[in-house]
Amino acid sequence: MNNLFTALITKRIVATVSALMVIAIGCGAGIWQLGRAETKIALAANLLARQQMPILNANAGPWTLEEATERRMTARGQYLPDAAIWLDNRPRPIPPAGSNTAQSGFYLMMPLKLEGRGEVLWVNRGWAPRNNENRETLPPVQTPTKVVSIEGIVFAHPGKVYELGSGKNSTQTGKPRIEQNFDLEAEGKQRDWEQLPFVLREVEAGAEDGLLREWAPLTSGVDRHYAYAFQWFALAFAGFIFWLLTGLRQYKRQGLAMGIEGIKGER
Q: What is the structure's pLDDT at 164?
């Protein structure tokens, strides 16, 4: 058996190197996908543990990002709808039952002026579908005009998407602020107001304001990572099997040819 593998390797250097490259790439990518899945599971477990901690009160701050990140928080104040920002190209967090395609829409970012304080808290109020015929036709959303109490989870930012260009915030008056990404620090400098160093993703469900707040768990996509890992490992295994079978076929043909030549020599 050792002699066989030695022959398959030494007489097929190019094929062996190619197969090793395929195997290395497949195994490496598979291990990376497994690592991504484990990272998501660990992050979800950490988020769940932090949510079990006592609920923070934004009005009792100030709070730092390190203190509040991934914690549940309540806030009381009044929305400033004129400063709202619509984050574009955001898929619906949880697709409707029976749908395999992600519906595109907006996250509505709106500042909340905290009651009894001079600070502003940016709130991700939820998701709304986009008008596919006219991008600037915003979905109908109701905003309370009085002081409200909300609850959510603290994050450093509402998530980022790939953006072409400089990414500068639009300043066109008379038009809704539709952006690809949200820059918390830039918003504070532009408006020259004091704000908390994080955003609050609202979790209240059932409010009839035209927004969806069914947020996808952090473990979403773990099954996909496992599927990708299986495909990469399968590619590595297929590369090895292909190298082995073609080598054995060539080895047998060479052995058969040598046997025929030996018979001819004896004659």
A: 61
Query: For residue 89, is it left (φ>0), alpha (ψ between -120 and 50) or beta?
Result: left
**CA 119 to chain CA mean position, Å:** 30
CA torsion 211-216-221-222 (nearest 10°) is 180
Q: And the tokens for 192?
A: 């020259």
Across the chain, which has 267 residues, the per-10-residue mean pLDDT values are 67 86 95 91 82 90 89 94 92 74 87 92 93 80 92 90 59 73 90 92 80 79 88 94 86 58 46
**Distance from chain centroid for Cα 85:** 21
74, two tokens = 């309540």
CA-CA distance, 43 to 143, in Å (whole number)? 33
Q: What is the DSSP string of 2-40?
A: HHHHHHHHHT-HHHHHHHHHHHHHHHHHHHHHHHHHHHH
Whole-number Å distance between alpha carbons of 132 and 118: 39
pTM value is 0.70
**Token digits for 110?**
């709106």
